[in-house]
Write a structure and sequence with these properties.
It comes from Taxus chinensis. The chain has 167 residues and is mainly alpha-helical. The chain contains seven helices and two strands. The protein has a domain of 63 residues.
Length: 167
C-alpha cells in the first residue's frame, strides 16, 4: 500500500472545497431570507472582514473610518460570525429602546454552553423567562442596597491596601 499523497494537493482540494461552500452559503443567505443587509466592505471568503482589523490602528478608529465610508450601520462578517456595527448615537438608542428584545440575547457559543452549564449562568443565559428570573434574583438578593452595605468593610480594606501599595 502506498499512502503517499502530495500534501499540497490536499491543501488545494480543501481550499477549493471551502471556497465552494462559502460561495454556496453567500448565495443561500442572499436569496433565502429576502432581508436586505446593511452596507458592507468587500470581504474575503472564509475569513470575511477579519483582514480589515489586522492594521496597526486601534479597532475603534478602523470602525470609525468604515462608518464614514459605508454609513452608520455596517454589516461585518468575522469568520462565520455576522457582526452589526452601529456608529450613530440615535441608532444605538433605538436599538436599546425600541428594538431591545431583538438585540438582548448573546450568540450561542459552544464554550458558553459547556463552561456555563448549558447557558445557565446569568452572564451567558439567552434572553427569555429564565434570564428575567435570574436578573430579578440578582437585583433583589445580590445587588440590593442592604447586601452592598454589608460588604462595605471589604471595600474600605481594599481601598486602604491600594493606598498603602501606591504610597
Amino acid at each position: 500500500r502506498n499512502y503517499d499523497v502530495p500534501s499540497s494537493g490536499i491543501v488545494v482540494v480543501f481550499a477549493l472545497a471551502a471556497l465552494f461552500l462559502q460561495i454556496l452559503n453567500q448565495r443561500r443567505t442572499r436569496s433565502g431570507n429576502g432581508k436586505k443587509k446593511p452596507p458592507h466592505p468587500p470581504s474575503w471568503p472564509i475569513i470575511g472582514h477579519l483582514h480589515l482589523l489586522q492594521q496597526k490602528r486601534p479597532i475603534h478608529r478602523i470602525l470609525s473610518s468604515l462608518s464614514q465610508t459605508y454609513g452608520p450601520i455596517i454589516h461585518l462578517q468575522l469568520g462565520f460570525r455576522p457582526i452589526l456595527v452601529i456608529s450613530s448615537s440615535d441608532l444605538a438608542k433605538q436599538c436599546f429602546t425600541t428594538s431591545d428584545k431583538a438585540f438582548a440575547s448573546r450568540p450561542r457559543l459552544s464554550g458558553a454552553k459547556y463552561l456555563g452549564y448549558n447557558y445557565k449562568i446569568f452572564g451567558l443565559a439567552p434572553y427569555g423567562s429564565y434570564w428575567r428570573n435570574l436578573r430579578k434574583m440578582c437585583t433583589l438578593h445580590i445587588f440590593s442596597a442592604i447586601r452592598i452595605d454589608s460588604f462595605k468593610h471589604v471595600r474600605v480594606e481594599e481601598i486602604s491596601a491600594l493606598n498603602s501599595f501606591i504610597t
